Amino acid sequence: MESRALELKEINQSIIMQEAKADLSGRWGIGVAAFIVYAVIMVVGSVIPMANLLVTGPFGVGLAILGLKFAKGEHAEVSNIFDGFKQFGESLAAGILMGFGIAFAMVLLIVPGVILACGWSMTYCIMAEERLGPIEAMKKSWAMMDGYKMDYFVMALKFMLLGIACIFTLGIGFFFLGPYVQTCVARYYLTLKKVRGYDDGMEDDITKHLVD
């Protein structure tokens, strides 16, 4: 699937990150609780062979659903992180395909792995909104991210720096960073849809999300 954008427009990451904070205002409790539940399950799953491999994709879609609800101002619940299991087969396949694809590329060279990770970064959001199959969602993500991989990578680096800062909070900060990052990704996805022309019907002013 080819991108429908006629020209690339730089997305204003500062606005995206500011809006994500506003989206979480009054709802941090839900986001933090959701990531505590998610972290506990993943830690427990780590001692069971292959368990995390089976749930990575479904939780990826579930977390995307939660982030999108925050970004859209919709009612959100901790249980939303389990919504990805409603399309278990598709989300499982997406998690496996992306995980092995990125890991294999990382083994060859780090840069190809980063490129794949950025190119497929919108896959779970797409599956959360459109319920596409894994291959179709990955293709659409790749098309949407054409020309925006480096921009997204820069935003990811900012999250990495915040992650380093969280270490000095004895790890507590990670439970706040999780919902914040997920909401930022959802905001980026929704903005990218408008920029790319996949959201023609939306009346929101997109100019504020662009760099002059």
Give short descriptive properties of this protein.
212 residues, mainly alpha, 68% helix, disordered N terminus
Folded structure, characterized:
It is a single chain. By secondary structure, the protein is mainly alpha-helical. Helix content is 68%, strand content 0%. The chain contains 9 helices and no strands. The chain is globular and about 45 Å long. The model is unreliable at 1-6 (pLDDT under 50).
Short description:
This protein is 68% helix and 0% strand. The chain is built from 9 helices and no strands.
Spans with pLDDT under 50 lasting ≥5 residues? Answer: 1-6
Instruction: Bin the strand percentage.
Output: under 5%
- Biggest sheet details: none
The coarse overall form would be globular
Task: List the secondary-structure elements in sequence, H or E.
Answer: HHHHHHHHH
Number of helices: 9
Backbone CA Rg: 17 Å
State the separation between the terminal residues, measured CA to CA. Answer: 28 Å
Average residue-wise pLDDT: 90
User: What percentage of residues falls in helices of 4 or more residues?
Assistant: 55-70%
List the helices and strands and how they pair.
Elements: H1 13-24, H2 28-45, H3 51-72, H4 88-108, H5 110-119, H6 123-130, H7 134-144, H8 149-167, H9 173-196
